[in-house]
Design a protein that fits this description.
This protein has about 90 residues and is an all-alpha fold. The chain has a single domain (about 15-90), classed as F1F0 ATP synthase subunit C (F1FO ATP Synthase, Up-down Bundle), CATH 1.20.20. Helices cover about 90% and strands about 0% of the residues. The chain is built from 3 helices and no strands. It has helices at about 5-10, 15-55, 60-90. α2 (about 15-55) runs antiparallel to α3. The longest helix is centred in the middle third of the chain and has 41 residues, at about 15-55. It is elongated and about 65 Å long. The mean pLDDT is about 80.
């Protein structure tokens, strides 16, 4: 079984090696970019559920606000994905 180092050692063209390194670093960057929104959405939903449990009569307003917060937080992950695509193919 070949390791990544063996595969990279077999690459002869420096441009190909640079492309492989760029793809790897872009994937790592997207992984880091997805951590923040994941934590943020988890915290947001947890707090919304807690608020609805404390005051069930305001569940509709809390739920609307929660979905807006999820949309804005998820936008950060989408921006990270766009940067990943741009770094990978540029």
């Amino acid at each position: 079984m070949s390791t990544i180092a063996n595969i990279l050692a077999q690459v002869e063209d420096p441009a190909d090696l640079k492309a492989i390194e760029a793809a790897g670093s872009a994937g790592f960057a997207y992984g880091l970019a997805a951590i923040g929104p994941g934590i943020g959405i988890g915290y947001l939903v947890g707090q919304a559920v807690q608020a609805m449990a404390r005051q069930p009569e305001s569940a509709g307003q809390v739920q609307t606000t929660m979905f807006l917060g999820i949309a804005f937080t998820e936008a950060l992950a989408l921006i990270g994905f766009v940067v990943f695509i741009l770094l990978k193919f540029v």
